[in-house]
Amino acid sequence: MEDKLKGQSLQSEAQGRYSIAELNSLSREEFVRIIGPVFENSPWIAETTWPKRPFAHLDQLHRVLCDTVRDAGEERQLALIRAHPDLVGQAALAGTLSAASNREQASAGLGRLTSDEITNFQRFNEAYHERFGFPFVICARRNKKEAILEAFPVRLQHSREAEIETALEEIGRIAYLRLQDIVQI
User: Fold this and answer.
1) Tens digit of pLDDT for each residue in 24-35?
2) Which of these is catalytic: 62, 84, 129, 158?
3) Active site (annotated) includes residue 84
4) Which of 30, 116, 118, 125 is the most buried (most CB within 10 A)?
5) Based on the domain organization, do 49 and 68 belong to the same domain?
């Protein structure tokens, strides 16, 4: 059985998709390598979640990963939020986003902006950072550039506590979509 799972795991890796059984059978290091990128530059979430295996299905894996974030405390939560790049920020303009972030921003139409739209994003990013001390996070795959630009002024009216909660909810949405890209259903 173990040899069969190992063979399936090699095949899954080539395809970039894994069954829940394969994920459950991975070493801590392999689990972190595969699941770690689900949360932007925060492999500690996958590492902390690994001992909570086995997971019955994608939704349970996502829930346990999000529980890890929820239970981590504000300092680690803020570090997670701050690990996200600004939308149309320096990393995007310089082409240094993670592959996942690049695809997500492109799916929202953020790679095809006018100079006025770029200026608007930069102005909103600056105001948001100034008010909250962390980047504006929204699930770009579920929004288009117009909706994102409309969300900035609304969210700038929130309290810091409400924005931390909103950012973590958006990160959970991003993580779920990234997990769907990895996990065979």
Assistant:
1) 999 999 999 999
2) 84
3) yes
4) 125
5) yes
